[in-house]
Design brief:
By secondary structure, chain A is an all-alpha fold. Chain A contains 9 helices and no strands. Chain A is elongated.
Chain lengths: 193, 193, 193, 193
């Protein structure tokens, strides 16, 4: 399959998942609206972390797919697995919004980090397969090594956030935010690419 | 109509339907979140089967549309019928999630399999029409015959799952999962194509 | 603006609106699922009429946009008006599903037909503007006249369905279905085009 | 990153956000449907203002992206920020629909205008960055100056609407409508472009 097709379908899933995040924001019905809006800060925090994370994975996905000339069947299904994790993101985002300040905080932030970890592992699987199958073009050996390290770091970060969820849920959410900021910052290889 | 247009619109519907599946996942509100998340395994099972099935039909749809040079009016409307079944999928997925463990299990899994059967029959109709109208290009007679058999098998499988729903709903869902895995596996013609 | 851009954005709105229709289908929670599914036939009827109508307007929209070389500002905003009506369709569809068998049937089917009428009028406005501004290419005078008549007929049909809603709501819904079938049938000009 | 990619992803988010607006329209369940539909005029007003605003920002976004040859990393993330505000719009739209006629009117219209202000500021940030980085092509100095003024005016307008929300919520919504109409009207530079 030509990768334009794959990119267009993936873009659709990314665009829908990122836009659905705002649907999860609670719409308080009571009369003291300022107060009610202020008390649902967990929903805003979860929204921002998820929005940035989907945005970043979209940017990275593009940088990867742009370098793949043709997708084989394995790449197609590894990519489908990645999209499954991406499409799931609005779900743990809603769980965190509902539970960050109550007894379910550990479970909610653990599921949140686990979905991000699944996404990062799938992304790495797409990357490793494309690299091994020699489908990546236009990168030097140094760039390949650098990007492999940078991509690999992702799931170490998210696994740490997952572990942290069981002891300090809010810190786990904050770590997920910090990971997003880390990937937002300019990167040596991105400048070279 | 040029098939790029048809492909782009179809891709949109596939991408939206597959991303909406996660919206159906229940968001438990109680305090014992781990326990509540564990008891809604039916929702996860239905989600995975539906996600894989939409993913596979997207891959197959692409392989088909890529070989059609121009779409006539009949193909356009057979394709629209296929998209109608695809867009329906989140609905029986939610029914299975809600009813797999209670008295509605037969009805829910029967509707689930019936929607997949409708989708498979529409896909076959698109395929048969495109083949008869000589709109398929770049395939040998042997490949055509092989793909016709492979596509035809789909609705036999789903009809079996539909029948099974009335006696063993969970087995029917498991069969739908097995069908997805069957189509995920590499195929002789796909390798040739 | 180049019309590819306009077409891609419009396709997105059409694809989303048509896929959201199935989200409106009620998901009964009770135990006698067969019975409950059977009693919500109004929802299936409204779904099918709306799905076919959006599908047809998409096909006609494409046939139109494909013939426009460049869109001016007026065309852009008439098209936006058309998309507004299209995006509204899931809303009256849900109203009809909820009210066809109770006291709100007249209001629900009237709003349903009024939204379709608004869509047809906007479509005619796009068509008339593109024709007057000389933006349509590749059509003979006879084809132009034929298509103008065919497009013009649309809003007469929907205005009739709107009037009928106040005396016979179910007949109004049936007429909307018949209009969809009429536009599904092959057309002389479509064959020529 | 090539800007076609950026444009396609952004188009997806715009198309989804604009189509989701209609999902927020309330579906009254009672028997006196005409009466209930008439009493929810706030929802229609908020829908129309939001639909026009997203439509206009889409048109302007396109005019901008069409002139950018290649997007750098900063542009990519400023654009992502813009899309975040756009994806949020269905949320304050629902708040205004629910609260315009009760005690929460100030808060609802203030959040509504604040989201539009955030969108306008992000748009200006994209514009200013693209201009400073010399990424805009095909515009004369006079056109650049004119468009900078026109874009800059946007956030002054929305800041005024935000201030007005605290004293006259309905007037604030009306001002947001007037801003949309202002940008709908033909513009000297748009005619030149």
């Amino acid at each position: 399959m030509r990768t334009e097709r794959l990119a267009a379908f993936s873009d659709g899933v990314f665009a829908i998942a990122i836009t659905l995040l705002a649907l999860e924001l609670p719409r308080p019905e009571g009369d003291d609206l300022w107060h009610e809006l202020a008390t649902q800060w967990e929903a805003y925090a979860a929204f921002i972390v998820s929005f940035l994370t989907v945005g970043i994975i979209w940017v990275n996905h593009h940088a990867l797919v742009d370098r793949v000339a043709r997708a084989d069947r394995t790449l197609l299904f590894l990519n489908l697995l990645l999209l499954m994790w991406v499409s799931l993101i609005p779900w743990p985002t809603a769980l965190v919004a509902d539970h960050l300040s109550n007894d379910g905080a550990e479970a909610a932030t653990a599921v949140f980090s686990a979905v991000f970890l699944g996404m990062a592992l799938s992304f790495s699987a797409v990357w490793v397969h494309a690299r091994r199958a020699g489908q990546l073009t236009g990168l030097t050996a140094a760039q390949l090594a650098h990007l492999s390290r940078r991509n690999g770091r992702g799931w170490v970060f998210y696994a740490t956030a997952l572990g942290l969820a069981f002891v300090a849920p809010a810190a786990s959410l904050a770590l997920n935010f910090a990971i997003a900021v880390y990937y937002l910052l300019p990167d040596r290889a991105a400048r070279l690419a």
